[in-house]
Design a protein that fits this description.
The complex is a heterodimer of chains A (386) and B (140).
Chain A lengths: L6 E8 L10 H16 L8 E4 L8 H8 L6 E3 L7 H14 L5 E8 L31 H16 L3 H15 L13 H6 L2 E3 L2 E2 L9 E9 H4 L7 E12 L11 H13 L8 E4 L4 H10 L8 H4 L18 H5 L6 H12 L13 E10 L3 E10 L2
Parallel strand pairs in A: 2-3, 2-4, 9-10
Antiparallel strand pairs in A: 1-7, 1-8, 4-7, 5-6, 8-11, 10-11
Helix pairs in contact in A: 5-9, 8-9
Chain B lengths: L15 H8 L4 E5 L5 E2 L14 E5 L3 E10 L7 H4 L2 E8 L4 E6 L12 E8 L9 E7 L2
Antiparallel strand pairs in B: 1-2, 1-3, 4-5, 4-7, 5-6, 7-8
Classes of the chains: A alpha/beta (386), B mainly beta (140).
Chain lengths: 386, 140
């Protein structure tokens, strides 16, 4: 039997916190685990597969997490490929369950990046003594700077306009205004984005995601078992992973991991781009959304500026993107990938109130981890309901 | 913009040829004797064919700006004081693309495709290493 559709997301939980100076990462993960298991109608005693990552978990972090939760899982995976990790975890969990290595997997994330003042975008990674990092760290590479170099190239080569990138931020904020949990809910305009200060040209402050605390959890089990649980199973129909990096062979900087991962995911699911009802894509920066939609095949590379314009990616548009308001407006604790699958799941279960996409049956979630212009990972999921 | 003193480079045996070359005013790249691929960053094997038969070559130092960003915010010292500075990828004549800074001109004057040449900033160090950081400046 094919992996496509064999396993489902049976429960999800997005931690409501955006500011948690009184909590630890593991505490947020544990509270999220409780939320997702309650959602599924399961208990922690049912869990025999543990998956997780965070910005501070070290080499043995997943073992420490098992200890914190008093778990003795049969399957353990602490893969950390940046913000996309959790979409890869869902894939790995589905594969492990399909192979009979575990039955109920939980994927966990927690972060106190905001309350601990972690300068994710513009202040990390300069103190490294690693010789490999010396090709970056003496140059003041910032996260936003790496994405800005992609935006600059896109603008120069294809005439993409700052106004088009700004419309992405405006759309995400409109969606956030319909999400009671979102951190930034006051609507903004294209002019607001363009008149906000430049952080790393051509990206402005409002082209950048916010920094928040937060976390979440996802329960994965076989579709057969999920059918007997509390919620409608959200089937994992397709999945793909990738790594993209620069320099050897001088690859095109506008080719993202989303291309390789997306082709595999769509191929496995056996669905077309035109079948997709909504997309959840990692929006670390506005350019990330534009480039991801291109590389996932929703438009040609170079046509992203037009594609994101005219309301096409807003609720009610042809391809609604990031209905929760995304990292640009809802929450971004450093590794946002888990929220992509959580919101996609809620949308496919029809639970999203004002921001609900009507009759949503099929969603794509794509996470980007790392730094787009330097080295990054990609992980894609195609999710669907019957 | 004050000229930035770049943070200290840390080298391994795989990468020190690049930094020592820079200290001599040379842009040093690796070439595979088995498949002729020129590569950067330097490493112990050819990343194209996995041969260990590599040689160092002195590149022309000429290239073009592939893409860049004018950095207006970086909270980490010493970069905070150096903003705005230009971070860029330079496409070298020999093929590899190098992450670097563009110096010696107004940040607003930098353009994709602009011809540039390597520029070397020797590091003041107390550990006896002779290293320099590679930047690029507009070609004359």
């Amino acid at each position: 039997m094919s992996l496509s559709g064999a396993c489902s997301i049976a429960g999800v939980y997005e931690h409501p916190t955006r500011w948690a100076p009184d909590k630890t990462e593991f505490q947020i993960m544990a509270e999220s685990a409780k939320g997702a298991l309650d959602d599924a109608g399961l208990t922690i005693d049912d869990v025999d597969g543990l998956f997780g990552a965070s910005m501070t978990m070290g080499a043995m972090g997943i073992v420490e997490l098992a200890e914190y939760l008093n778990l003795k899982p049969n399957y353990i995976d602490g893969t950390n490929i940046g913000g996309s990790s959790f979409l890869a975890h869902v894939t790995h969990a589905a594969a492990a369950i399909h192979a009979g290595l575990c039955q109920v997997a939980i994927v966990l994330y927690g972060s106190t990046a905001a309350s601990h003042s972690v300068a994710i975008g513009t202040g990390m990674g300069h103190g490294s003594r690693n010789p490999w990092d010396s090709f970056q760290s003496p140059y003041g590479m910032t996260t936003v700077g790496s994405y800005a170099m992609v935006a600059q190239l896109h603008m120069q080569r294809y005439g993409t306009k700052p106004e088009q990138l700004a419309e992405i931020a405006v759309t995400m904020r409109r969606h956030a205004s319909m999400n009671p949990a979102a951190k930034m809910r006051t609507p903004i305009t294209v002019d607001d984005v363009l008149s906000s200060r430049l952080i790393s040209a051509p990206l402005h402050l409002l082209d950048c995601c916010i920094i928040s605390d937060g976390g979440g959890a996802i329960v994965v089990t076989s579709t057969e078992r999920a059918k007997d649980l509390r919620r409608k199973p959200v089937q994992i129909l397709g999945c793909g992973e990738s790594v993209c990096h620069q320099e050897i062979g001088s690859p095109d900087l506008l080719t993202m991991g989303a291309r390789q991962a997306g082709e595999r995911a769509f191929g496995m699911a056996g669905v077309q781009r035109s079948d997709i009802d909504l997309a959840m894509v990692y929006d670390s920066f506005t350019i990330t959304v534009l480039s991801t939609l291109e590389n996932l095949g929703f438009c040609k590379v170079g046509e992203g500026g037009d594609f994101v314009s005219g309301g096409r990616i807003g609720l009610g548009g042809e391809l609604p993107v990031n209905l929760d308001g995304g990292g640009l407006s809802s929450n971004h604790p450093g590794m946002r990938g888990i929220f992509l699958a959580i919101e996609a799941t809620k949308q496919l279960r029809g639970e999203c109130g004002d921001r609900q996409v009507a009759n949503a049956k099929l969603a794509v979630a794509h996470g980007t981890g790392g730094t787009l212009g330097v080295a990054h990972s990609g992980a894609t999921l195609i999710l669907g309901v019957e | 913009m004050a000229d930035l003193t770049h943070p200290k480079v840390h080298a391994s045996w795989e990468t020190r040829g690049y930094w020592e070359g820079a200290a001599r005013g040379e842009l040093v790249l690796q070439r595979c004797r088995a498949c002729s691929t020129v590569q950067h960053k330097p490493r112990g094997v050819c990343a194209t064919c996995l041969s260990g038969d590599l040689e160092h070559i002195v590149a022309s130092g000429r290239g073009t700006v592939y893409t860049f960003t004018v950095t207006h915010q970086n909270q980490a010292p010493p970069f905070a004081a150096a903003c705005p500075y230009v971070m860029a990828y330079v496409q070298t004549e020999e093929g590899p693309r190098i992450l670097t800074h563009i110096v010696g001109c107004d940040p607003e004057a930098v353009r994709i495709g602009m011809a540039v040449v390597a520029d070397f900033q020797p590091q003041e160090r107390t550990d006896g290493e002779q290293f320099a950081v590679v930047r690029f400046r507009p070609a004359d």
